[in-house]
Amino acid sequence: MTGIPTLTAHDGTTLPAIGLGTWPMDDAQAEEAVSGALADGYRLLDTAANYRNETGTGRGIARGGVPREEIVVTTKLPGRHHGHDETLASFEESRRRLGLDRVDLYLIHWPLPRVDRYVDSWKAMIKLREEGLVRSIGVSNFTVEHLTRLEAETGVLPAVNQIELHPSLPQDDVRAFHTDKGVLTESWSPLGRGSGLLDDPAIGKIAETHGVTPGQVVLRWHVQLGAVPIPKSADPGRRRTNLDVFDFELTPDEMTAVANRPRRRLGGDPDTHEEF
Ligand SMILES: NC(=O)c1ccc[n+]([C@@H]2O[C@H](COP(=O)([O-])OP(=O)(O)OC[C@H]3O[C@@H](n4cnc5c(N)ncnc54)[C@H](OP(=O)(O)O)[C@@H]3O)[C@@H](O)[C@H]2O)c1
């Protein structure tokens, strides 16, 4: 297996081209998965205050024994803490649970447009970055409209937008905006989270051609789109194969075939989804 390439955002933020998702692991599962993943070469980790596993993630990092500066630790602000001062307080709680001096990537988990406080949270996140408590700041589940508003009102565009992205939801419009602005795209539910995607015969055929698994074909599709997938696996064998996607290449026809399926959202619509 070759090394994991990195991608760079408009502000110089760099991310490994693939990471580990930790939802819906509990603390004990996250500790086990994170320490094992670090040993296997994962360097990008994804947790959130709302996953209730930041403590386990932090323990896994401590157990992993990998130099701290090599790891990109991501966590997210929950909806109940939107607002300027609430964001600063929530961040301190996350940092304490993780047991870290600094968080590498801090994201607003959902925009909650009806609540309409994400701009206030964003201003607090800019402050956290200026104080050096957070290395990079970004968002999750933001639409082009939400991103444009952040830039218009603060002059600061997120380094990363983590969105639902898989072959049934390729998000061409949001990705085109990201590419134009230098915002890195992270893909959540990259494997289609148990939706049957990996049992699709068309993907199975491509996997056979390359001598890889259907999961590797789908993760390679993300890599070739320029998006950073964060597959969750509690299984050490699947975690290792998920990381091993840098030694083969899909043809343009195979890229098209992977995404040639009915469009389908597995999670909430960012314009209306509310989660606190
Ligand atoms: N920002 C957001 O709003 C948001 C929303 C949802 C998720 N996320 C993040 O994105 C991460 C990933 O998304 P997700 O967990 O929804 O979906 P996913 O990564 O697409 O799918 C995870 C499921 O696929 C299985 N799996 C993993 N590798 C596999 C492989 N190679 N072959 C077959 N099955 C495999 C896992 O089971 P095993 O564990 O048994 O391997 C698990 O059931 C989450 O963990 C979380 O960190 C963010």
Can you give keywords for this protein?
276 residues; alpha/beta; TIM Barrel; 8-stranded parallel beta sheet; 10 helices; 10 strands; 40% helix; 15% strand; binds NADP nicotinamide-adenine-dinucleotide phosphate
Spatial order of strands in the largest sheet: 3-4-5-6-7-8-9-10
Please work out how many helical segments DSSP would assign: 10
The assigned structural class equals alpha/beta
Q: What spatial form do the alpha-carbon principal axes imply?
A: globular
One letter per element, helices H and strands E, the order comes to: EEEHEHEHEHEHEHEHHEHH
Kindly report the oligomeric state of this protein: single chain
The share of residues in helices is 40-55%
- Nearest-integer average pLDDT: 97
Q: What's the gyration radius in Å?
A: 18 Å
What is the CATH superfamily of one domain? NADP-dependent oxidoreductase domain
CATH class wording of one domain: Alpha Beta
Which kinds of small molecule does this entry bind, naming each only once?
Answer: NADP nicotinamide-adenine-dinucleotide phosphate
Low-confidence stretches: none
Distance separating the two termini: 40 Å
Number of strands: 10
- Strand percentage lies at 15-25%
Give the topology.
Elements: E1 6-8, E2 14-16, E3 20-21, H1 27-40, E4 44-46, H2 54-64, E5 72-77, H3 84-98, E6 103-108, H4 118-130, E7 134-140, H5 144-154, E8 160-164, H6 172-181, E9 184-188, H7 201-210, H8 214-225, E10 228-229, H9 236-243, H10 252-258
Parallel strand pairs: 3-4, 4-5, 5-6, 6-7, 7-8, 8-9, 9-10
Antiparallel strand pairs: 1-2
Helix pairs in contact: 1-2, 1-9, 2-3, 3-4, 4-5, 7-8
The protein binds NADP nicotinamide-adenine-dinucleotide phosphate.
